[in-house]
Amino acid sequence: MLKNIAISELKNTSRQTIAKLKKGGINTYWDLLNYFPFRYENYSLISPIGQAQLGEKVTVKGQVISAKNIFTKSGLKMQEVIISDGKDKLILSWFNQIYLIKLFRPRNFVSAAGTVRIFGNKKILGVEEYEFIKEITDLTINTGRIIPIYSESLKISAKTLRSKILKVLNELTPTSIPEIFPPEVVVYNDLIGRTEAYENIHFPENLEAAEKARRRLAFEELFSIQLKARKLKDLSRKEKLQYVFKLDSNMEKLVNEFIVSLPFELTTAQKLVIDEIKIDLVKTYAMNRFLQGDVGSGKTVVAAIAAYISYLNGCQTLFMAPTEILANQHYQTISLMFKKLKLKIGLKTASNKLADEKYNIVVGTHALLTKNFKLDQIGLVIIDEQHRFGVNQRDELAKKGLNPHLLSMTATPIPRTVALTLYANLDMSIIDEMPMGRQAIKTFFVENSKRSAGYDWIKTKIKNEKAQVYVICPLIEESEIETMKSIKAANQEYESLKKLFSKFKVGLIHGKLKSKEKEKVLNDFKKGMINVLVSTSVVEVGIDVPAATIMIIEGAERFGLAQLHQLRGRVGRGHEQSYCFLFTENSDENIIKRLNFFSKTNNGLGLAEYDMHRRGPGELFGQKQHGYRDLKLASYSDLNLITQTKNAVDYIINRS
What we know:
six-stranded parallel β-sheet
């Protein structure tokens, strides 16, 4: 088994190379084979020197005639190696690599790949890869074929890495890489064999073979993720519930009375999700449901109804949020909802110590995870913006009770393809409808030439309509990094806007402020004592100020579309028309196109799909979390492959 062969057994490999491989996490032959290329260069066109055409990417082979350094008029140091294939001659060229000349000795044979160009009045080959050979007819590794390009993170040369991988591939036997799927799964999903896939992912005969190899190994990757998720799901359903909920006619009546008492009517989507949760809560195994809903779609009231059912069953609910701002917001919202009922609502954060009292619902931050915080009858755990917590933190919170029901929520728009993969062990609900009376937020990309006119319009809105304004900046302090000096910083913008909006009150909030300072600023903003609030993305979640109807986002290109959508959701909380203005100092055509797309699109899922296809899934979530898996070859946007692997998991589990 390749997993059992230590990398130190690789023949003709220096100690330094072995050390670098181990440092990069490559400890076995199997690890090395799973170090996949991220792209390929096509040097498969092997051309006689005399037939090499301008602009062509080719491989040529020949014998070295001469090698010398040439100093150009512009000051460049050009390396010129003349080779001959016995019939024609060609100049191989590099720039500023003086040491190369010592390697090219007359009469040695070389194979070189690159693009044919004209330099001065001479035809040259701008060399991208080369290797020395004994004869022109020799087989090559780095030229004359489809060449794999690997990440340089191992700090090992591409030539060395290719040669080591080829050594491992050459040692393979028919049993070295056993097939893991039944024959019918391989045939049904049109997969190539496993050994063939590993050979062709590294050294394909053509790009079609490389794609078939990638698809086979990507299938394996997604299958593994979904199989683990499915096993976790099946295992959780076998665990015994400490508190088995019921929902008799009297309880149903109380829940309906609570819903009727709300100052708004639930949307059809909310009602459907509540029905799904009700069904889950009376099962003999714990609910494990993932609720996705756009900003302002009403996830909190759905969570409150689940918590009320927990209360009616004599159980307590923990409700965890990632920030104090969001925890405070949920605490206030839920307390208001249950004002006329007898439920006791508690708030536990780093700055708010919970009194020793029996609470029905406790809202909090990471402080809920502390060892000295214990409740006796936890029947339900609710986690908001759950992607901001690692798997270990979510598990730790769930362990506060004995296998409680779990409801995870997020307002971050996550494409269906991503959710199917990441949350295969959860049942999924989506609130895809906004409450009645909510108006779409009018969003505009503002050119710098119109910035001044925009400020004048905002001043009029503040004066005549008492509008409140958010100004979002990507940074807190002005950056010293040259490439980021044009990015607006909150402190700098605060000072600037105080002068610009001198007749109005300007406030500042960011993550480095102490909790009490942040709380005071937010309360002043809610009371209308602050007209313009300058902030970082700390206000992305948890701020609900209905009078705030205008948002300016500086350096808008610095945010993913999903995050821009989250920020935009801070306005439009009331019934007044709201506006979002996007500012950027960057004139890149792709950035302008992306921001214009955002301006015209209010659907969070549509934005997330667009962002994922253009920027990759990593942009959806910001900093990496323990809960997210990095894919080597598969893509979260490949719905067909995700569906195929899910069906394969179902087939294999059902037949076992």
